[in-house]
Amino acid sequence: MTRGSGRLVALWSAFLAVHALTAWLGWVYPSQPMGDVVLVYEPWASAALSGGPIVGVTETWVYPQLALVPILLAKMLAAPFVGLLGVSGAYLIAWAVLVTALNALAFGVLLGRSPSAPRRIAGWFWTAALLLLGPIALYRLDAITLPIVVIAGLWLVARPALAAALLTVGAWIKIWPGAILLAALVAGRHRVRMLLAALGVTAAVIVTLLLLGAREEILGFVTEQGGRGLQIEAVAATPFLWLAAGGSARIEYSFDILTFQIGAAGADAVSALLTPLMIVVIAGILLVAALKALRRASFARLFPPLALSLVVALMVTNKVGSPQFHVWLIAPVILWFVFDRVRARVPAALVLALCFLTFLVYPLSYDALLQAQLLPIVVLSMRNILLVVLLVIGVRALVRVPSSRPLKSKE
User: Fold this and answer.
1) 173 burial class (0-12, 13-18, 19+ CB within 10 angstroms)?
2) What pTM was estimated for this model as a whole?
């Protein structure tokens, strides 16, 4: 065995071992980190396959409609093992196997047969991030979109239309891959081809939904988000958590959204301001990037900080701060390593720290957080502050992207 092949075997072994360990820990850790999979996804799949309501088609849903595809696929994979493992056990294992298979596919695209040093480093980063983030990195829909975004990002230069189509599919599962698509459209050189591919996928999804009988349900994932309150893990909820520790705010459970939210004077006002703020922040980032693109900044320098900045902006200005959102950060850093290894080091270190802090909150100390105990509030506050720092660093890197030509003056 050559030295290169030995490194590759070690990397693959570590990657698969981390998946096996993380999947098992989901059964061991407190707060049921795989709870959504068995308590929410499986009932949705069972209802759809047994003639009941179909989320996103016959009733509005909090997710885009293609999210139902992996949910149903896991149900079909689990079917032969229900007698042996029970409905819940079979579905959980099928979900873990599905995510592992998709990640392995993307890992194979990343590494190939003879990966360069940047790609090997990206592989080790991905492995470490999954280990530090814990079971939430596997047992959520976000885990399905991660490998899709990685593959699409790696294909942006050689197969831009196919990459854009994949990113659009990802956005119809969870919205965040749309941020990567926006980054590609601004930084890339094949904008028309990518835009046409994205529109083609979107049109196909909408036509299919119309044929299935969906009407107002098609955009239900947008309207459902409007009814959310301020989730306790959101960055903007941090001051209210400290108020809750002192008894001046409440942590309440929303049965409509299935999440814990802040109940306090001013919380609704803050929640209402976050969506406009998100639009302003993202528009500002896109404006800076568009100016860089007009000055012919290279794709390899412009795309990585732009992609990361957009994703982090979605998180920092979001009224929701679910722990699985940190899965989103892994893909832009993987791509940053591939395109521009040297400048990826600081963002990568911050993302690994964010994964670990998120793990300390959920699942390890989540029950204590719901009781507004001091230690988890401190850890979550550190996590949220670090997330803002990552946004600043991403935007700073974007501003510093060099241009190959200045804008023409209007003298």
Assistant:
1) buried
2) 0.95
